[in-house]
Amino acid sequence: MRTLRYLLFVLFCCYCWNAHSQEQTLTYTGAPLSGQQGISPGYITGQIVLAAPLNPNEANQIVTPLSWGFSTPVLNSGLDTPYGGPSASFDFSTVNGQIVGWTVIANSNSPAADGYIQSFIDLTNAGDTFVGTDSQLGYCPQCYQVTATSSTAGIWVDGTAAAAPEIDPGSALGGLTLLLGGLAVMRGRRSDAPI
What we know:
Elements: H1 2-20, E1 24-29, E2 45-50, E3 58-63, E4 67-72, E5 77-80, H2 81-84, E6 89-95, E7 98-112, E8 115-124, E9 127-136, E10 144-150, E11 155-158, H3 169-188
Helix pairs in contact: 1-3
């Protein structure tokens, strides 16, 4: 009976491990942006976490990430899950497990000390666009807008693929079952009488 409890506990742990290992983390680094004269906008970086990996060979996979966030040095702005709202959309196309096409659009209004910063990004495999507006409430002579673009595609990296290699949960479960079964057989053949 005790062995059965241990076996059920191990099976439950393997199930939980397998469910968690299905998440996929994608990290994005955009190409350098060019913007208005005198402004060095840098580039857009970000990360999204998906509940399950993208299908390896499918066009236009519309996904809803568990969490996401993008940032750019322009206006010190960032866009992330809490500010995303319904205007955030994520669309990926893959071939042989590689991301070959994408459209990511996100818009946010971040509160600032005396107004707000509105940020908009449009990331595609044809290049990136960033539009940022810094507005002061009730007083707009100090409002300004920055637009920066790049015509070169950024790079998506699968952060889950770079992690330490994992044992396939099915193989681990099979090996564990064999090990516990062998121990149970050996324990059952043990003699209680002294020799």
